[in-house]
Amino acid sequence: MGSTDNKVIIVGGSIAGLSLALMLEKNGIDFLVLEGYSSIAPQVGASIGVLANGLRILDQLGCCEEVVKAAEFPVEKVLFRDSHGRPFWEFEDFNQQMTARHGYPAVFLDRRMLIQILYDNIRQKDKILLSERIVSVKTHTSHASVITKEGKEYSGAFVVGGDGIHSTVRHQMWDQAQKVDPTWFDQNEAQFCADELAALPATYACIFGISKGVCGIEKGTLTSVFNEHYSYLVPSGPGDRTYWFLVRTMDKTMYGSEIPRFTKDEEEALAKEHWNDYITPTLQFSDLYKNKISSVYTSLPEYVYKKWHFGRIMTIGDAAHKLEPITGQGGNSAIETAAALTNNIVSALKGHPSELCQLSSDEINSIFERTQCQREKRTGDLMRASHSRQRLECMETPLLKFVGKNVIPYVPKQFLVNKWIETYSPAVSLNMFPKPESDHEMPYYDELLQSPSSRGLLGYMAYAAFATMALIGYQLLFTAGKANGTWSLLGQAVLSGSIGEIDVELRQVYTGMSSIDKILKTLVAIFMPAIIHPSNPEQPLQLLYFLSSMLPLISIFTIEGYRRRNGWTPIASAGFWGILYQLRGIGFIAPLYFAISLFVSRRANFFIQPGRYVPAAKFILPALVIGFIVPTILIFFPFKDPIIHQGIIAFWQPAPLLVSCLTMIFAIAETMISSALGWKKDYSRSPNNDVPHLKMIYQATGLVSACLHLSLIIGCLLSAELSLTRLFFPENSFAPVNTLGDGVFVFFQNDFLLVTAACLLWFLLSIWDMNRSGLSDIDLRVALSTLVVGYVVIGPGATAATVWLWREKVMIRE
Description:
Layout: E1 8-11, H1 15-26, E2 31-34, E3 47-50, H2 52-60, H3 64-71, E4 77-81, E5 87-91, H4 94-102, E6 107-110, H5 111-121, E7 128-129, E8 134-139, E9 144-148, E10 153-156, E11 158-161, H6 168-180, H7 187-190, E12 201-212, E13 221-226, E14 230-235, E15 241-255, H8 264-273, E16 278-280, E17 283-284, H9 285-290, E18 292-301, E19 303-304, E20 309-310, E21 313-315, E22 321-322, H10 329-348, H11 361-393, H12 398-407, H13 413-424, H14 457-483, H15 486-496, E23 498-499, E24 504-505, H16 514-531, H17 538-562, H18 574-584, H19 586-600, H20 617-635, H21 642-652, H22 655-677, H23 691-718, H24 724-728, H25 740-772, H26 780-793, H27 795-811
Helix pairs in contact: 1-5, 1-10, 2-10, 10-11, 14-19, 14-25, 15-16, 15-25, 16-25, 17-18, 17-20, 17-23, 17-25, 17-27, 18-19, 18-22, 19-25, 20-21, 20-22, 20-23, 23-27, 25-26, 25-27, 26-27
């Protein structure tokens, strides 16, 4: 084979084609670009938005700064306007948010400007041939060739078609497949003879144009104007340019030859229909159209083809996936697909250094197959998102009209910010070059250890496991308590006003509110036997150990309640959950909390999205000390007056709620004091300035819990009177008990065992969540073994603090 076959033939000097050419050149891979136009960057009236996913790849190619400079004005503000041009939704700090989260702005410029920048950065200009419109493509066992309208033939290892929606390369590819393997392509797609592209749909048509000297469009703005069955998209451009799109819905979705091609007269007629439409209250469409320097009226096909390749032929860009222009992802997706193809070519060439001609047909097919596999779902998602957005802005149905007028005005910016993750984070980049060093809060998926994935069936199994644990908890805590007589003895004590076995009269008044006092009296009656005159030495030790083990867990509940991304979710109120488990037992309530927390975090990208920050972090540890640790110490203090002691025990009962409330009070107090004294708050730009406070919480609570765990274990091992078995495991939860103290001891034993078992599963799932989010890659078998060892060596409480400390570090990618 001659050296002329050792190249990639790229058909079309489009954004897709020139991006691919530049990528190949930078990797030392030979190429030839065949462009049908007589100039490399003709003015066809089109603008393009280059977004974070496209700019990131262009940054790797050394073009990003040129593109941003050519655009002049990044999008600073996004506005949605009604049919009178009045804004009803604004995103003022769009550029600040975009660059902070994803590292790049959103910019608009002429499409030809971007093409010129790509062309200028290609050193081997002699490998870009103009006025070479191809008419046929042929594949052979060892190479592929193209023939131009002028009868010239060019050969290469394979052919890549970046020649647009009406791609000649795609037609030729289908023709080749029909001769060799008619089942390769979907027959609806490949039926291109008389009715051209039978499967290709178009629902909308659009006049897009560029105007100069228009007043009324603020620089750095992107304006959408909602109307019934038509809409406008108006981005400002560089210099005195304004770009605009008038999109209208056609009567129906049309296919293939049904899709109209419009004349200039039809364009002008449509423009006259919309002559007096308002873009802003002071700017009408006529002002844009009268000042246009170019415009095109075209239908807007949208489709992702089911097969992008056959043999030695591949399509990319609009030839493989065509999107609505409203989200700006058409050109950016073309750059992404070119990058994915380059990655796979370079990977395949590792076994054949720089020699495309050495790649077999099977290896080339594998390159193409992997590229489509990596890009097909993403382009399909982007296509559906752009279609849905266009339907909304055209208010196509009464429901969408209602949403556009009554819901969209109240949509918080955070909703849009979170949607960016789905748009930008999954984007590919060039694997062979270092990832750009632009600062960004949200990781791109290819910066993670793996792409985030959903829990799938295992997620539902986890829900079922926690539901089962809650059911078992109900049986061991309440059904067993009824069967063994604990609740009967408790009822007698509350009714009689005394606990006979320890000869203590129950205090009757705590708050003066009878309903609350009754609850407190019942809870005090449960705790008193274990603290005053216990029937065995394990009772007070078990309760103290239980409460010390719960300290890290209560801190975790409080942290997750104040974590921003959990706001307005069922786990946002740690105090509410604290009251529930104080009244019903944490062994019963915790599995329900864990199941709901799993549901809240079910999305694949939940743990990399904005909202890890805990604003109240520095107040949680003081709140824990005052609201939980001090009251817990006090309930074990040997007060001589039983009335005072009962008051202390009653005061301890709402401790989890108190911790949450104190956290909020401290935060509000700091704000008020700072305001009164004129202090300026430290608005650190670091998104992780809460982490030192969180680390302190995990370390302090874990240390307390670990010390008590080790003290108790060592004490039991050294003591002839204490038994670890009696301490933790009830002999028979349903066997009748002699005293209320014995029954409560069994209750606390079961409560502790239940919550530690549920926590073990929760911790393991939390580690798995970090894995499936791409933030870690710990073997779950190793993780489970480590958790079990942690339970034994430092105790379940300290293990909880350790897991959450590790989790916090992983989430900030420390």
